[in-house]
Every structure is written in structure tokens, then in C-alpha cells.
Amino acid sequence: MSTARHSPARSIAAHAVLATYTIIALFPVFVIVVNAFKSRKAIFRTPLELPTPETFSLIGFETVLKQGDFLLYFQNSFVVTVVSLFMVLLFGAMAAFALAEYRFKGNSLMGLYLALGIMIPIRLGTVAILQMMAASGLVNTLTSLILVYTAQGLPLAIFILSEFMRQVSDDLKNAGRIDGLSEYRIFFRLVLPLVRPAMATVAVFTMIPIWNDLWFPLILAPAEATKTITLGAQVFIGQFVTNWNAVLAALSLAILPVLILYLIFSRQLIRGITSGAVK
Q1: Which of 30, 146, 253, 272 is deepest in the core (most CB within 10 A)?
Q2: Residues 94-130: tens digit of each pLDDT
Q3: 88-126: string of b/e by CB count within 10 Å (b at 16+)?
Q4: DSSP string over the chain
Q5: Claim: this prediction has a pTM higher than 0.85
Q6: Cβ neighbours of residue 56 closer than 8 Å, sequence gap 6 or more
């Protein structure tokens, strides 16, 4: 009886906490998008108000498209993110399948070693990474960013996907082997379709840090031809004068791909998180 009585209160409290967190998380996005459509004076006078006919202005978007090579920055970010995401999902899923399916000496230690990559920030190795890229002639190339982001995303991908792949029925895989399927076909045709929610979860958690990163593009690829969208937005930030209209417009455009990805994979993402919680 006491549990039944307290359950509505707990539900209300949980929803209140979630609603508060949602408001806090969305507030910066709201401020950025709203002020991107305002004049400079309105940004500082009424930053929290919606644009009105008097304050509405597209000067920020016009500046981004005219002064900065925004399309090139967007293209670089898109290429780096897509290729890195593809490599993380492919190699992460293969490694997770090997750890989950095959029992070999050092299996547990290998999983623990890969899990350490989640706990140790890759930025601690920035100097060594820069030296390695310089020695390989990869500075100011998109390849350097792709390699770093792939290495950065693999530990989390392997950790998540291996747990899901352990839940795939052994009978299904053995039936495939009896039918003459190779290990590659079992992986691609039987296992991968069953872990799509987990793949979507990994994709979202991997894409957002890559798309928003400023650290490695600034260090490894600061040339004009290899700038990403986050680094390109710094063009409008000066030492003495900052074009806030252009900065907010660039950030608003940078939000779109992440938002589109979430809308596409939202169902798979929620399924992946909830099924992981149940397991």
C-alpha cells in the first residue's frame, strides 16, 4: 500500500527532474537560435525575447555565407564526421563481435584494456599525436582528424556493442554455421541487424563530440582548406571586436546536422538505451 501511495509522488518528482534538466539543456540552444535572427543591438538589449519585426535580421547568415567559406567548413566537418563514424561502427562492431563470440586467452584483459580508453581522455596524448602526424606528413589533412576520432570513438563503441552482441542467440549463429555461412556473413547478415538500436546509440554518442570538437581541428588541421565548422566559426571572433550575429548564425547552422541525425535515429536510440537499461 505504501509503495502504491508513493508511486504517483515519485513519478511526479521524476518527471519534474527530467523536465528541469531538459529546460537547462535546451536553454543555450534556444538563446543561440533566437538571437541568430536578431540585429546586434537586440541581441544585447533583449537576448531572451523572440525576434519581432523591428529586431528581426538575417545579417548574421549573410555574413557567414559571404565572408567565411562556410560551405567548405561544413563539407570538411561532414566528411570527417561521416568517415569517422563509419570506421568506428565497422571496426567497433567487428571487435565487439570477436570479444563476445570467441573465447581466447586474454579475452577479459583485452576488454578491460579497451575500456580504459573510455576513462583516459585522448587529449592527454595531444603532443604525441601531433608529433606522430607531423612525422607521417598528415598535419593539415582531414585524414589526421579521421584517425584521431576513430581511435577516440572505438573504446565506447566496443564496450556498448559487445554487451549487446552477447545477448544474440547462439542457436541463431550456430544455425547459420550449419547452413554454411562464413563468420563474415554471420556477422553482417545475422548479428548486425539485431544490434541496430545499439549501433544507433553509438552513432549518436560518437557523432556529437566529433562534430562539436574544436581542440583537434585547431591543432592538427588549422589550415583554411581543412577547417571544420567549429574552427571556422572562430573567424568571426576577434581580439577586440566579435561579430555575434555571424557567430550565432554559424552555430545555428552547425546544430542542424545533429538535430536531423537525432530525428532520424531517435527510435533506435531510445530502444538501444532502454534495452541496455533492462539488460
Answers
A1: 272
A2: 989 888 888 777 777 877 888 788 888 888 889 999 9
A3: bbeebbbbbbbbbbeeeeeeeeebeebeebeeeebeeee
A4: -HHHHHHHHHHHHHHHHHHHHHHHHHHHHHHHHHHHTB-HHHHHH-TTSPP-TTTB--HHHHHHHHTS-HHHHHHHHHHHHHHHHHHHHHHHHHHHHHHHH---TTHHHHHHHHHHHHHS-GGGGHHHHHHHHHHHT-TTSHHHHHHHHHHHHHHHHHHHHHHHHTTS-HHHHHHHHHTT--HHHIIIIIIGGGGHHHHHHHHHHHHHHHHH--HHHHHH--SGGG--HHHHGGGGB-SS-B-HHHHHHHHHHHHHHHHHHHHHHHHHHHHHHHHHHH-
A5: no
A6: 37, 38, 39
Question: What cell numbers appear for 6 in the block?
Answer: 508513493
pLDDT tens for 149-195 read: 999 999 989 988 988 888 888 888 888 888 888 888 888 888 888 88
